What does this fold into?
Amino acid sequence: APAETVTEAPIQAPPPQVVFSAPTANEADVPTGSRVRIQFSRDMQPESFKGQVSARYDAQEATEHVIPPTPIPSFTASFDQGRRVLELRFAAPLDRFRTVVISLGAGILAFDKQPLAPYAVSYTHLR
It folds into this structure.
């Protein structure tokens, strides 16, 4: 009788997820000079963050409160592989009484090339 060949599908890890952010989602009273930290569930490809991280003031809030469009200060993003943390540092303090939205695009990849689902977190600067 011919021997049966058993092939097993490789075990695939779950897709990467955001497990924590500071500030947390919808947090208020965040100091204007705060850094943003986002932690991931898996090891990520640091180069995949390029062009996939954005920051802006909430456009709907600006429309509702008749606030003229204001660009957000530039920022740098760095990834700490050991802690799995992406950190954003803004070049200048952010505007008080404004909601900030940080978005992560689908081009961000785990080490095994699984994409991060698009993610956004918003928080408000009151002081």
